[in-house]
C-alpha cells in the first residue's frame, strides 16, 4: 500500500528556463524532507525522466543551499521529443517505479504541464503495459497504482490563464524595464526614437507591463491588434508627444504584434515609419532584447512566489487522493491557491487559438483581471490611440483618440484635485502621481501639486504660495514613471502639527475639490486627522483618498504598500552580495538590520527571499530562549559543515524587534558563543532600503491604483464643500485604497481606523503575512523553534 512506504516526491523543471525555478527546487526539497518524504530531482526535464539512471537523484537538505540566488535552473531543463510519444512516457513510468517515486512536481510552461497531465491520465495503462511486457512485476507496481502530479507555472511570458503571475515573469519584466530605462537616457540625449521588441508570441503581458512601468509612447500586443489606420494613429500620437517638447520616443512591441487582420507588425515596419523622411523623420533604432530577458537572478517577488508555491505544491501532492483533479498552484492578488490544471491549460490554448482566429475581444476576455486592468491603466495614462475602447466610469465621455493629455471641455464636471505626498519617500510615488495627473488631464480635471507635504503646504505667506502649490507641468511629470524618491517632495508633518485651521483655510483658498494623498502611516494618520476635523472646518468636507506608499508596508487597509517591493529587491541584492562576500571565509553569520518600524513585513519577506537562518520581527519580539535556540542551531550547522557551504549565513532583524537585543548585540552573542569556530558581523543597510529606481511591480501597481483613486474622487464631483453634511455622512468620502485578499478595494477610513489599526504600534492589527513565518522557519531548519514569549 502506498500509504505504508515513505512517500517519495520528485521535482523537475521543464520547457524554457525562468528565474525562480531554483527557488522552487529548494522549497520542494526542503519542505518534502520536512514532511518526512524522500525527495528526488529529475535532471534535464522529461529527458531525464525517460533516461533514468543518474538523471534521477535523491537530494539532501544541504544540496539546495545557495539555490535562491542563482538564475536559470540548476537541475537543467530540456525539450524532450520522446515524451510526446507513448513509448517515451512508458519508459518514464518505468523509471518512476524503479525509483519508488509516487508523486511528481513539475515546474514549466503549459506544454510541460499538458505533458504532465497526459502522463497522469495514462499512468494506470502505462503500468499495465509495463507488466504485460514483462518489464516490471505486478508486485513492483502494486504500491504505485496512483500517481499524484502538481504543476507549478514557470514561464517568463505570464501566459497561463487562472494565475496572476507565473514564476519568472516579474524577473523578466524587471530586466526589460532596466533595459528600457537605460535606453531612455540615450534616446533623450540624442532625441531618438527606439522600437523595443520584447518576448511574447501569444501573450503581450511583458510588453504591456513594460509599457505601463516605463510610460512608453506606444504599444503593440497580440491581444489588442491595431486598426487599419495604425500607422497614422501611431504617428499622430508620437507627433503630439514630440510637439510638447518630449525628446525621446519609446515604442514597445511584443514579438506577436498583429494588426486586426492577423498580419504581423514588425519592429522594422514601425522603425521605417518613424524614420520616414516625409513623416516624423526621427532618428530611430531597433533594440531586440532577446535572451537577456530570461537571464539573471530572480527578483524578490519571484523568489517568494516560487518558494511559497513550492511549499504549497508539496502539501498538495501529499493531500491528493486518486479522486483529486490534477492541480497547479496559482496566485490571485497575493493569495496562493490550488486550481484545476487542465482547465487553465485549455483556457490558455484558447487564447492563442482566438488570437489566431482574430477573435481578439474574446481573447482579451480570457486574460485575468489584472491584465485587462493594466491594459486600461496604460490606455488611461499613456494617451495612446486605443483609449476609446476603455469604458470610462459612470460619466461616459468620448475618449481622446490621439495624443497627449489635453484638457477636455465636454467632460463630466471638472474638478481641482490636490496631490500630496506625506511621510518618507517610497518607490512608485512618482509613478502614481504621473498616472493620476495623466488621468486627470484626460478627464478634464486640474491636477495640482502640493509640494513638500503638509509642512510645505503650510509654509505659505500671505497671497503668495512661494511655489508650494502649483499646477503640474506635464512634460516634466511624463518623465517620472521610473523615478525614485518623491519629485514633489514629501514631509512627515501631520496637519495638526502644521495647524489644522491653517490647512483648512488653505484648502478653501485653493478651492480644492478633492485630495489625493500618497504616503505611509503618516499619510494615513493625516487623512484621519483631516476627516475628524471636518465638523470644525467645512472646507475639509471634500473627498480624500490615500494610496499607501511606504517601504514598511504598515498602512492599515491594504496588504501591500507601494515601495515595499522595491525595498525587498534592494534588501535581496544587499543580502546576496553580503552572503557572497563571506564565500572566501565561508564561516560567517551576518546579522542584518532592516527598517520597517514596528512592522516586520520586509524583514520576514526578505528573509524568505534570501533564505535567512533566522528572522526576528516586532510582532513576535525576541526572547533569550529564542536566541539560545538560534545560536545552538548555528553551532550545529557549522559543526556539520565540512566546508561545503558556499557562502555566509544570514539572520535578519527588524529595527524594532527588540529594544535590548539589537543587531550588534546579537552578532556579539553569536561571536562569543562560536568560540572562533565561526565569525559573526552586524550590518545595517539603512536608507539603501528605500531603493533607487522603483521596481516594475511598484510602478505598475502605482499606475493601476492611482487611476482607481482618482476615479473614486471623481464620483463626488466638484464643490463637495458646499455639501458638507452629505460628505461628512458619507463614509466613502475619506478612503484608503488597498489590495486585500483577492481584490483591489477602497475602504472607508473610519472603519479602517477603528477596526484595523494598531495605533500604538503604527501598523495594521492583523499581520496578513505572519503565516509565512512558519515557511521561513521550516526552510531555515528552524521548525522546532521555541514559541515567542
Ligand atoms: P515554455 O513556456 O518555455 O514554452 P513549455 O513547458 O510550454 O515552456 P514545451 O516545449 O511546450 O515548453 O514543453 C516542454 C516539454 O514538455 C516538451 O519538450 C515535451 O517533452 C513535454 N510536452 C509538451 N507538450 C506535451 C504533450 N502534449 N504531451 C506530452 N509531452 C509534452
Question: What can you tell me about this protein's structure?
Answer:
Its cofactor is Mg(2+). It is found in: Cytoplasm; Mitochondrion outer membrane. Its main location: cytoplasm. Catalyzes the phosphorylation of D-fructose 6-phosphate to fructose 1,6-bisphosphate by ATP, the first committing step of glycolysis. One of its GO terms (molecular function) is metal ion binding. By secondary structure, the protein is an alpha/beta fold. It is 41% helix and 16% strand. It is built from 27 helices and 25 strands. The strands form five sheets. Strands 12, 13, 14, 15, 16, 17, 22 and 23 form an eight-stranded mixed β-sheet that branches. A seven-stranded mixed β-sheet has the order 3-2-1-4-5-10-11, sandwiched between helices. It has a four-stranded parallel β-sheet with strand order 7-8-6-9, sandwiched between helices. Helix 6 packs across helix 7 (205-214) and helix 13 (369-382) crosses helix 14. The radius of gyration is 28 Å and the shape is globular. The model is unreliable at 384-411 (pLDDT under 50). The protein binds adenosine-5'-triphosphate. Adenosine-5'-triphosphate is lined by residues 14-16, 46, 79-80, 83-84, 108-112, 114-115, 118, 155. Residues 14-16, 46, 79-80, 83-84, 108-112, 114-115, 118, 155 line the site of adenosine-5'-triphosphate (ATP).
Distance between the termini: 43 Å
DSSP summary, beta strand count: 25
Largest sheet: 8 strands, mixed
The global form is globular
Rg estimate, integer Å: 28 Å
Small-molecule components bound: adenosine-5'-triphosphate
What fraction, in percent, of the residue positions are helical? Answer: 40-55%
Model regions low in confidence, pLDDT < 50 over at least 5 residues: 384-411
- Helix/strand structural class: alpha/beta
Give average pLDDT, whole number. 89
Total count of helical runs of at least 4 residues = 27
How much strand content do the residues show?
15-25%
